[in-house]
Known about the structure:
- It is built from 5 helices and 5 strands; from the N terminus they run H-E-E-E-E-H-H-E-H-H.
- The protein is of the alpha+beta class.
- Strands 4-3-2-1-5 form a 5-stranded antiparallel beta sheet.
- Helix 1 (2-29) packs antiparallel against helix 2, helix 2 (75-100) packs antiparallel against helix 3 and helix 3 packs antiparallel against helix 4 (164-194).
- The longest helix has 37 residues, at 112-148.
- It is elongated.
- The chain starts with a helix and ends in a 7-residue tail after the last helix.
- It is found in: Cell junction, Tight junction; Cell membrane.
- Its main location: other.
Amino acid sequence: MASAYRTMMQLAGILLCLLGWVLSCLTTYLPQWKNLNLELNELEIWTMGLWQACVVQEEGGMQCKEFDSFLALPPELKISRILMFVANGLGLLGLLLSGFGLDCLKVGEQQQNLKKRLLLLGGILFWISGITAIIPVSWVAHMTVQEFWDETIPDIVPRWDFGEALFVGWFAGFCLIFGGSLMNCTVCSTDAHSSSPHYIMAEKQDTCQHSESGKRPKSLRV
């Protein structure tokens, strides 16, 4: 029963991490990190991402232009690019390591200690990946709030607002952190179970029974 529950927790954790990793990759390339609504021209909505700026027209058309230079970007967008790449790389590495450490995978059944270490390392990588994904999203959101309430900018100037990609990035980060926590909890529960007195007594009894069966004298043939 405990083994089945642990396997279910591992599957739930890795599925959450997989969802978080896919959403993190999606956040990296979405152009909706910031939205700009023009009151003078309500038929157009401007959006900005890490790679390009787009204008969405009411007729359904969308035109995008990539940024010409990385150095010309604001600091938060430059560092956000780097952090999102790091988050995606760590998430992929965590998926590979923890995937080989799953109990339902028959590979390496004789090396349980190694599988536990892979699960633990994968969970830690998911934590770091989730935090690394949340940092740039929160930074861009903080700068957007500061610019929105900046009193030095005239009221007639349009203000940037939160884009959909920010919410996707937050959700991705929390999925990675929660999924990594589930993976690490299964490792801790396994260690606690193996060190419990009932488990140790059962193991000793098993060993004694095997040793006694091996020491039994063979019956003499008449």
